[in-house]
Q: What sequence folds into this?
């Protein structure tokens, strides 16, 4: 049956039961999968770069690194787990630990910034302080999702 507009239907041979019949994604070796996951955490987008997803790699690198740098430029603070005052059963200030876990997700962005002392002297009086913190939290949490995405692609669960 020809379409009414006279065009041929090129996708019909590949269409089967509600989805297109493409090659199924295949898992990669364990060492390459581990390298993709560690690389994705250290440098945002590096896991996708190792898996050959160049467009995603560039997009994730620019987005996550840009959000982290923007957060630092807006006087955001780098958090590090500190002892709770007064001492509690947790021995650490739980909120600070959670903020640290959110920020450390950005990998080398956090580690290099902390090593060079960027964001270690907070300026809570700055009008943009909370915005800066939020951008750095966003960068770390988003990179956790990117690491998971790289793992799914490497495991063959996703295209």
A:
């Amino acid at each position: 049956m020809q379409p009414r507009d006279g065009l041929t239907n090129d996708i019909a041979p590949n269409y089967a039961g509600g989805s297109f019949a493409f090659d199924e994604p295949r898992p990669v070796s364990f060492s390459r999968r581990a390298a993709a996951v560690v690389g994705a955490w250290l440098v945002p987008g590096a896991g996708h770069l190792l898996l050959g997803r160049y467009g995603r790699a560039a997009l994730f690198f620019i987005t996550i690194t840009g959000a982290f740098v923007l957060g630092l430029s807006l006087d955001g603070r780098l958090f590090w787990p500190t002892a709770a005052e007064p001492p509690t059963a947790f021995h650490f200030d739980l909120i600070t630990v959670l903020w640290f876990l959110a920020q450390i997700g950005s990998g080398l962005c956090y580690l290099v910034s902390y090593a060079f002392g960027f964001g270690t002297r907070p300026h809570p009086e700055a009008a943009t302080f909370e915005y800066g913190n939020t951008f750095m939290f966003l960068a770390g949490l988003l990179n956790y999702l990117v690491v998971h995405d790289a793992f799914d692609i490497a495991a063959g669960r996703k295209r």
Observations:
- Strands lie at 15-16, 19-20.
- DSSP finds six helices and two strands in the chain.
- The longest strand covers residues 15-16.
